[in-house]
């Protein structure tokens, strides 16, 4: 009889499961709220589209466009190729990129596994790259562990992800959330690079955004409802091992959370550096998010298929996003991202009702 997998082996296998399920199964929620956002058309833009400036300052660095390749993967040898393609494209196009949770890299010394993370800086020496660890693991890792995550990829920032609904739906989930805010505040104060706090598909309320701003984090990534449902992903994983209860919980909560458009507005009430992610699927969605106050827009799943095809396909997708964003800027009369942040946005329907709570 074979030995059951160790905790470290479970972490590694989970990374492979996640990518496979996101690619193969129906784990989209919809309802990001961007359909309720209308930008006001400017029939006389009085600008030259060819001269529109899409660059933006982001945590002390300049991005060529306000796009973030959201944290997706790493921690399994199978993910090295994906991260290489994504990072190569981020370097070429001058946008930001995050790696997936580095928990596996902090627990393992296997060179093939570590390469799934370290490859990003190898191929993107100048890109803005950020690391990633879970809030639930901060008590174990502390500032020292966070620094190790930064050093692993020579990161420009570190994301601390909040994924407690996912953990609750996960058969082996870590559901002790005590002391996380204090740990985040300590890391934000003592770490050598800026700290980003990001949700993972369920959004940040204005109350949570205020607490995180007070804790001194440098940026908030709302990662709201509307894209991949990690509760739904864990339901598939639970079903595969016959865990009926966790499967049921994962399915019940697959549409839980704050819509991304709502979370973007509420987070920007308390912080001036907000990334809107969660169901962002086009340059027009990014334009709407910026008009709501975001600094940039983040996408994850839409990059997976191009990443599997290679860096050239990723670059082409980024160029598509840029063309869409510039068109939205042109027809709102916005010559820069700063001007787009000031353009009029009308909020309709369910999104406005949510904001009126």
TrEMBL record:
<feature type="domain" description="FMN-dependent dehydrogenase">
    <location>
        <begin position="176"/>
        <end position="343"/>
    </location>
</feature>
<dbReference type="GO" id="GO:0005737">
    <property type="term" value="C:cytoplasm"/>
</dbReference>
<dbReference type="InterPro" id="IPR000262">
    <property type="entry name" value="FMN-dep_DH"/>
</dbReference>
<dbReference type="GO" id="GO:0000287">
    <property type="term" value="F:magnesium ion binding"/>
</dbReference>
<feature type="binding site">
    <location>
        <position position="132"/>
    </location>
    <ligand>
        <name>FMN</name>
    </ligand>
</feature>
<feature type="binding site">
    <location>
        <begin position="14"/>
        <end position="15"/>
    </location>
    <ligand>
        <name>substrate</name>
    </ligand>
</feature>
<keyword id="KW-0414">Isoprene biosynthesis</keyword>
<keyword id="KW-0285">Flavoprotein</keyword>
<keyword id="KW-0521">NADP</keyword>
<feature type="binding site">
    <location>
        <begin position="300"/>
        <end position="301"/>
    </location>
    <ligand>
        <name>FMN</name>
    </ligand>
</feature>
<comment type="similarity">
    <text>Belongs to the IPP isomerase type 2 family.</text>
</comment>
<keyword id="KW-0413">Isomerase</keyword>
<feature type="binding site">
    <location>
        <position position="167"/>
    </location>
    <ligand>
        <name>Mg(2+)</name>
    </ligand>
</feature>
<keyword id="KW-0460">Magnesium</keyword>
<feature type="binding site">
    <location>
        <begin position="279"/>
        <end position="281"/>
    </location>
    <ligand>
        <name>FMN</name>
    </ligand>
</feature>
<feature type="domain" description="FMN-dependent dehydrogenase">
    <location>
        <begin position="26"/>
        <end position="104"/>
    </location>
</feature>
<feature type="binding site">
    <location>
        <position position="198"/>
    </location>
    <ligand>
        <name>FMN</name>
    </ligand>
</feature>
<dbReference type="GO" id="GO:0004452">
    <property type="term" value="F:isopentenyl-diphosphate delta-isomerase activity"/>
</dbReference>
<comment type="subunit">
    <text>Homooctamer. Dimer of tetramers.</text>
</comment>
<feature type="binding site">
    <location>
        <begin position="101"/>
        <end position="103"/>
    </location>
    <ligand>
        <name>substrate</name>
    </ligand>
</feature>
<comment type="function">
    <text>Involved in the biosynthesis of isoprenoids. Catalyzes the 1,3-allylic rearrangement of the homoallylic substrate isopentenyl (IPP) to its allylic isomer, dimethylallyl diphosphate (DMAPP).</text>
</comment>
<feature type="binding site">
    <location>
        <position position="101"/>
    </location>
    <ligand>
        <name>FMN</name>
    </ligand>
</feature>
<protein>
    <recommendedName>
        <fullName>Isopentenyl-diphosphate delta-isomerase</fullName>
        <ecNumber>5.3.3.2</ecNumber>
    </recommendedName>
</protein>
<dbReference type="GO" id="GO:0008299">
    <property type="term" value="P:isoprenoid biosynthetic process"/>
</dbReference>
<keyword id="KW-0288">FMN</keyword>
<dbReference type="InterPro" id="IPR013785">
    <property type="entry name" value="Aldolase_TIM"/>
</dbReference>
<dbReference type="GO" id="GO:0010181">
    <property type="term" value="F:FMN binding"/>
</dbReference>
<feature type="binding site">
    <location>
        <position position="166"/>
    </location>
    <ligand>
        <name>substrate</name>
    </ligand>
</feature>
<feature type="binding site">
    <location>
        <begin position="71"/>
        <end position="73"/>
    </location>
    <ligand>
        <name>FMN</name>
    </ligand>
</feature>
<dbReference type="GO" id="GO:0070402">
    <property type="term" value="F:NADPH binding"/>
</dbReference>
<feature type="binding site">
    <location>
        <position position="228"/>
    </location>
    <ligand>
        <name>FMN</name>
    </ligand>
</feature>
<keyword id="KW-0479">Metal-binding</keyword>
<dbReference type="Pfam" id="PF01070">
    <property type="entry name" value="FMN_dh"/>
</dbReference>
<keyword id="KW-0963">Cytoplasm</keyword>
<dbReference type="InterPro" id="IPR011179">
    <property type="entry name" value="IPdP_isomerase"/>
</dbReference>
